[in-house]
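Request: Not sure, any thoughts?
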Amino acid sequence: MHQELVDLSRLQFAMTALYHFLFVPLTLGLSIIVATMETVYVMTGRPIWKQMVKFWGTLFGINFVLGVATGLTMEFQFGMNWSYYSHYVGDIFGAPLAIEGLMAFFLEATFVGLFFFGWDKLSRRAHLVVAWLVAIGSNLSALWILIANGWMQHPVGATFDPVTMRMEMTSFYDVLFNTVAQAKFVHTVSAGYVTASIFVLGVSSWYLLKGRHIELARRSIAIAAAFGLASALSVVLLGDESGYDATLNQKMKLAAIEAMWETEPAPAPFTLFGIPNQAEHKTDYAVKVPWVMGLIGTRSLDTPIPGIKELEAQAVGKIKSGLVAYDALAAYRAGKGTVTPEIAKAFKEHAGDLGYAFLLKQYTADPSKATEADIQKAAADTVPTVWPMFWGFRIMVGLGFLFIFTLGYFFYRASFRGMKFPRGMLVFAVALIPTPWIAAELGWFVAEFGRQPWTVYGVLPTAMSVSHLSILDLSITLAGFVIFYTVLFIVEMGLMVKYIRKGPYMEVEETERWMAKHEHRLRTHDGNLPFGNPAE
């Protein structure tokens, strides 16, 4: 029954998180793209750029509102479904979430209103400042949330207090500048920038195929291709950084991604293709590229990457070390804080492995009475299911390189071929629109599923973190969330399609005034005004 409770709690949080992250990447990327477009408008004064800002800003607004609606419930779930987790690590995890709400979200939400309703009340430059504050607020929200998540992946700046029986923060600086959190932040926002760039590219390509809004579409492609190409390249570079961090802090996750059962001689190869066989601890039909994994994971030619079998054996040792800390903690609490120096020393030396002793609670109420078989089972639990990790990572990486190729091609055509794009590539760009979301969701899946069986890596097992709810309660709320979020997703898709089909709103009077003022500069050699030709 307890395992069903854990599985349902995990499924509910996974569903709400994956739904929420359908909206987040587009918000992150569109906020920067819209602010960039408005910067060009303020610099040039050309109405076409204002038209672009308003059009893409409308799509940003729809996505932002629904992202907020789906994100609010996630924070409440920590108290409802994960109450022991909130009790055990709330002092550390809650701090960045509180800062995100007080600083970043309020900044973003306040200036979103000014962005949409301040066009006639603010000067051009003041409105431009508002646009950039919206973009900064959106990205700051992501920063604080990823600091919290990064701490779950690599808990630093905190220690266990035997008096309160909770984790206590010892250094906010270490939590803030956690290397895993910083790498995750830049990697995640860069992925959001790519998502928005592919979205803008695809919608603009659709306009060109339909022969509508030609000038807006071409300029939008130029912005999206340049911004997206730089972002896609940074995703690859920062993915390398994340791989290096995983080698240092989450070795089992990296081994599962690679289906690396045995410790490979340095430098380890990268498995390009294979079929992981977890039952027999091998990978069938493996196609390996020499040296690549060693260079990514260790940035050296002589440092080995430990395999799953070796790491599982190390987990046995950590569980036994954690049992020493568990027994010392029991003696400490039995003595009500009065313990011998030997017990205090034993706890201090082994406290870092206390979380591994907690893994035994799935097999015995009192870990100190665990058998050798229980220890072996708990060590085996530290190995996540390999095949979804293996393939999820490879599909994500493959899509990443596809984005680089596509954005690079459109950047080349926009910069050096007079913004003329072959029809086949325009069709391809439209078809590509959903794929950045697939890559982003797979990235989160690999990061979170690969952390199991931990809620906080090496500190608190997932099985200990859940609230004592009934299966019925969880089933009803899970169904409710799925239905509600599906409705929101359908609403967003309907609104997005509606406004994309409708197209941008042309402010005729402002455009005519600008055209009259600059008519002599716009005329070509035959005296005609150069409007976009849909046939090009």
